[in-house]
């Protein structure tokens, strides 16, 4: 199960967490993904979509 959006392909971002004493540790930013039942090629299918794609209307939800 990948942690990426099926519409825009937004995925994990890697970087460093920097403390007040300037010590650096690894950290990960994860996109806000939701499981949504949407119309894909006219048929309802469950896909993982980021909330930015949901808000912008790039996904047509199935009822």
Automatic annotation (TrEMBL):
Organism annotation: Caldicoprobacter faecalis
GO BP annotations, alphabetical order: translation
Keyword match Ribosomal protein: yes
Molecular function in Gene Ontology: structural constituent of ribosome
Family from the record: Belongs to the bacterial ribosomal protein bL28 family.
Keyword Kinase: no
Any Gene Ontology CC annotation: ribosome
SUPFAM superfamilies named among the record's database cross-references: L28p-like (SSF143800)
Gene: rpmB
Keyword entries, A-Z: Ribonucleoprotein, Ribosomal protein
Protein name, entry field: Large ribosomal subunit protein bL28
InterPro entries from the UniProt entry: Bacterial_rp_bL28, Ribosomal_bL28, Ribosomal_bL28/bL31-like_sf, Ribosomal_bL28_bact-type, Ribosomal_bL28_sf
